[in-house]
Every structure is written in C-alpha cells, then in structure tokens.
Specification:
With 109 residues, the protein is an alpha+beta fold. It contains four helices and five strands. The protein starts with 7 loop residues before the first helix and ends with a strand. Bound molecules: guanosine-5'-monophosphate (5GP). The site of guanosine-5'-monophosphate has 12 residues, from β2.
Length: 109
C-alpha cells in the first residue's frame, strides 16, 4: 500500500492542522495524543513519510531511526517514566487497528 499524504499526521507535519508539540529533533516529532488513554500519552513520529514500523525500519536512514528512538527515550527520562513504568505501542495495518497511516509510537505513562 502506498503512503496516503492526506493522513492526519502528514497534515500536522505540514502544519495544516495544529498539535501540542512536546519535543522534536531533526527527524522526529513528539506531541500529545488528542484523546489520551493515560495521564501521559505522547505520540512520536518520524518527520518523513513512513506508513508503519516495517516500512520505517526497512527504508529509513540509520540516523532517522536513531533520532526517533533518541526522542522517545528523552521523553522517558524527562518524565521519569523509567521509574514507575510505561508502555510503547505501535499499531500496524488493518489487523493491528492502525487508525492513522503514518508510523507513530504511543508512549503511555
Ligand atoms: P492508532 O490507532 O492509529 O494507533 O492511533 C492513532 C492515534 O492518533 C489515536 O490515539 C488518536 O487519539 C490520535 N489522533 C487522531 N487524530 C489526532 C489529531 O488530530 N491530533 C492528535 N494529536 N492526535 C490524534
């Protein structure tokens, strides 16, 4: 399946719709989920167009993969999530109930 440029996170990246930015680096962006399922519910996404985890890991540069993981880990540290625990979730495809077809990691604390 090809990447759909009209998905909501692509619009956020193009600044066509707003989001509450938590942190960012050259290759990744983190913002609050609009419908939080935990006291802290961040979404971490790559800035380039990847549909899902497999697409990202198969085709992204090493630096993009490092930057996304660094951003996610910096939020874990900043919010002390390593002390009490957290969940990282990435839903993929129809069988994985992926609603937004741009790779995103849910970080729930
Ligand atoms: P998925 O089911 O694809 O893993 O999760 C998509 C997530 O995106 C959901 O948790 C949903 O609340 C969140 N979401 C959907 N639309 C928006 C939006 O416009 N802004 C933000 N910040 N989050 C959104």
């Amino acid at each position: 399946m090809t990447y759909d440029e009209s998905n909501i996170f692509a619009k956020i990246l193009r600044k066509e719709i707003p989001c509450n930015v938590i942190a960012e680096n050259l290759n990744a962006l983190a913002f609050n989920d609009i419908a939080p399922a935990a006291p802290m519910h961040f979404l971490i996404i790559p800035k380039k167009s990847y549909q899902n985890y497999h697409d990202f890991i198969s085709t992204a540069s090493r630096q993009e993969i490092i930057d996304l993981n660094d951003l996610m880990n910096s939020l874990i540290s900043k919010h002390n999530l390593h002390e009490n625990g957290y969940r990282i979730i990435t839903n993929t495809g129809n069988d994985g109930n992926q609603e937004v077809k741009h790779l995103h990691f849910h970080l729930l604390g």
